[in-house]
Structure formats: C-alpha cells, structure tokens
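Support case: user asked for a sample of complex input and structure output to validate their parser. Sending the pair below.
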Amino acid sequence: MKDFSLRSYPVKWLLLVLLLPFLLIQCRNKHKNSVFEVNPVQSLPPSAGKDKQKTTQQFISILYANLFQKALSANELVEITNCITSIGDKETAHEIVISNFMNHSDVRIPSNTEMRDDVDTFLDETYKRFFVRDITEAERAFFKDFIASNENVTPELVYFAFTLADEYNYY
Amino acid sequence: MKRRKFLKTGGLVATGAFAAPYILPSGRLFARTGSQLAEHVVFVLFAGGVRQQEAVSQRYLDDSQGVNIPGNILYNLLEGDPPDSKIVYGTTTDLDGDTPIPKILGQTIQKQGVLFKEVLSRTTGHYSGLNGLVTGNYYYTQGLKSKPTLPTIFEYARKHLGLSATKTWFVGNGISNSVPLLNYSLHEDYGVKYGANFLAPRITFGDQGFKHLSNAKVYHPEEELDPIYQMKYFLDNVWLASGKTIDTINNTDEEKQDIKDFIKEMFNKKSAGTIAMPPVSDNSDLETIGYACEVLKWFKPTVTVVNLHDIDGCHSNFTYYLQSMHRADHGTAHLWNYIQTQIPEMADNTVMILVPEHGRNLEPNPIKDENDWLAYDHSDDNSKRIFSMMVGPGIDGDLVIGSESNRVGIATDAVPTIAEVLGFKDDVMNAGHIDVKAKSMFDHL
C-alpha cells in the first residue's frame, strides 16, 4: 500500500495546507443573495425613427417620385406647392393633388393581377416604397385580409391610402 | 309600474327637449352669451394701405399731386361727388382709365350704415395691420411668414359658437407674405383645431390650379373612396402609437367632400364663364371678390374675411393706386349686392364690416408714374389714419361718427364688433387677449 504520510510527502502536504483556504473560499455560494432578472428592452413601433414632418415641397417631391419613379421639375414643384398653399385644409389639398396625379397616364402602379397573384411581395414593396420600412406581421395580416375580402381594392387605391396616411407626412 | 315608466320616459324626453338645443356641434353645452344681430358677418380687409386723403377726405389729386381736383372715387361706399376732370381711375374707352365704373348700389354703404370717419391704426405695416385686424390685438412677437400668437376671430367663433370649419372662411387675394397663415393662431387655448378654411382663389382657380388641381380623378364614393379611407384609418391607427399627429383645422369627412365638390364646381363655372364676378373684374381684388361671392353662396359661412390688396401698388404707381381703390369700392359693393340679391339665406341677415389695415404717408416717395404723379409708401403718422364702416341689420343708417379732429375707434375694434354681432362678445372679451383699447364699434355709438 502506498504511503501518503507527511513524512513521505512533506512538500505536497505543505502545498495542500496552504491551498486549502483558497479552495474553501472558491467553493462557497457566491450567488446566494443574487436575483436574476431580464434586462429591460424598449419596444418601439415600426415607424419610431420618423420624427420630422415633411414640408409641402418635400411632400410633393417625394410623392411624385414614389408615383412616377422620376423627379419632378423645379417649376412644377413650385406650382404644386403654391396650389397646396392656396387651400387651407392641407389634407384636402393633398387629396386633390394626388387624385390629379392618378389621372396621369405615366403613373407607375402594378396591375391588379400582379397584386393579387403575390400579395406578400406587393405589400413588402408598397411599405418600402411609401413608408421606407418593413411591414409588420399585424399590418400584413390586415392588408391580406382586406385585399382578399374587397374585390374593388386595386393597387391604385392602396397607393392612394398610403399617400394620404399620416405616416407618409413624416420622415 | 306603468305610471312610473311614464314618468321616467316623460322626464327623459323633457330633459332632452330642453338640453338638445344647447348642445352645439363642438359639444358645447351652452349657447351664446349675448343677443345676436345677424347670423353672418363678412369682414373686408380694405385693401392694402388706403391713404385717408383719397378715401374719406375725397381729395383725389388735391392733397397728393398738387393738382386742385378733389372728388370721391369710392362712390359705392361714401357719399360725395366724383372728380370732374383728369379721370384715370376707371376702365379704358379712349384714354387709360377714362371711364368711371358705373355705381352698383342704389344707396351708399355710408347711407345704409355707420361710417367711423377717423380711426386709429396703431401700425403702418401690412403684417402687423392684418394681424391686428383678425386678432383684435397688435401684439405679435414675430415678423413675416409666421402665424399670429393670439387667437383670431375664426378661432373665437369656432370655439365659442361651436362652429364647424366650413362656417369660417378666410379668402385671400394671394399667398404672398403671411396671408395664408392668418387663418389660425398658435395660441394654446385655441389654435389649429379652431382654424378657418383658407382659399386664395386666384391660385387655386388660376393657371397653376387649372394645371394641377382641375383634372382630379373621380372615385366612386362607396366602391373606391370608402376602401381608401378604411385603409388610411388603419394606417393612421398604427401611426398613432408613435404619438405624432397631423395638425388639421378639423374639417369633417363630409366637409372635405363639400370643399372638393366646391372646387370642382368652380372649375366648371370658370370654364363656363359663370363665376359671380363683379361687372368689372380686371384686377386681382375683383377676381378675389368674385370667388368670395361663390364661397358665400356655397358654404354660407358665419364668419368670412376677405383680404384685398391691390391698392398697395401705390408704392410705385399712383394712377394704379387710384384705379385699385375705385375697384375695391366696386368689388365691395358687388359683394354686398350679391349677398342681398343672390343668397337668400344671408340677405338681411349679414353684417359687413370694412377696415383698412393701415393708411399711407403724408409725403410721397420720388417714384413717378406715367402721369408724372408721385407714389406713396406707408410708414409715418399719416399711415395710422384710417376709417371703418359697418352695415347690416340692427345697425343705424346714415350715421357718421368722428371727424379729422375727433378720432373715434381703433382698427382692433373689428374683432369685438364681429363677436357682438354674432352674440358672443363676452366670451371674446373675457378670454383676455383683445387689445385693451379695443371695444365693439357699437360701444362708440
């Protein structure tokens, strides 16, 4: 039988005696009084980054670019801005300007078939085009249901609603 | 049981019958605080800086160009004979302006109402002048391109009378300077939600408007507009979570549709040449008056303010100034005549008030026009000399108050006067935002 006596291994016993207090300290329950929690994370709506309201000029320029996929001329920008300024109710003025745009032949809107064949893609692109953000699942559910249950809803009407929306007035 | 049910039902009906007339569209529970002289007020901001000498004093060229020819070129408004020579203010037959515009009214506004012959304008600038006229106070902390800081007459009327937005209109002759900003103030107790509808018809229905507004696509109300609004409301509800809102003057959906129908109809009438223009409509003020008549006929507003401005051409052209003043008289007469003859709901039920925002200088500037006549700016004490007029039901006729040596009234009297006509003067005065010197014109009589 192997002899582990102090006399046989004096150095080892000495080291053991010296290390024992450290081992005891390391083995105590450090988290005895700790409370485990979840870090608070602020949940923001998808449009939270938009905090500046567009000026009339910005609104018109962006609207035109969104609908026609090209830039509005400086002269026309001034004229349309004047028209909006000449009407006190800006929402009504915007609505009239947008419905005039919709009467132009070169307005770029997907066909009804394209929208209904792939509603998900249409919605993704519409949110990015007008709101410059991703669609949420709640929004997707609403629009998919709304489009499916309303035969009269065309891409033009969807675009019209987006351009009239309050969020479209912010960037 | 039957008796108890009868009493309960009867009590509810009686309570409803008593309360219902006092629940106004705004939710206001109490009716106006005073008696009402008329249901409508038309306030003409007349008209870009009128020099007292050529207006009430009827001096024509006498006090301005050193030519001894007096005369009254506001002969729809004021009693007095027109000039008998050097006629330049009319339409052109042989020479420029040689034919005076025929008088519209059988009886002058002065004969029909009250003329305050010498009134104080505490300011000599357009912005502060217009601001004072619509707010009843000369207090402002900012310059051009800013909204008033104190409530306007539109906000007072909408808040205290519970009016919807289309019952208050500000018709401007353009969109320059601060004109489109005067339809509501930034005051925290009033502000945008009580603002008036604004229209600058020469833009809306002019070349620019025709190009960008007249070709609106017509959507089916149920099959197309309804889904658009449903989707918009969903998007707006999502946006509400951001806590940001869009400031609006709160036209209801029905009112917005009414405005769109009005605009469409105006384009139709313009194409057909049937806008209610004055017999002569060869300047921007007269065009503005024509469309103001259409606004009155369509919406029958409670408060309408019409801003005229062509007279300000006097900075560089005295002849044009005389022509513009004569046309402002013609236009105002047409407006009054149109109300009385073409709008039955407003005839004999409308008070018209007329006040210039300020006068013009005593001494000319060096600019001469084609007749070698000197032009006038507005900056000295003479520019603070103005007049005012009011006419309508309950107002004495043929009454002249004050004189050159006895000034009575201040331009800011207009707001309390409008409030008194509509029966809510106490609300306005108690709000505490009116000039301390201002009081209803009726209090001067």
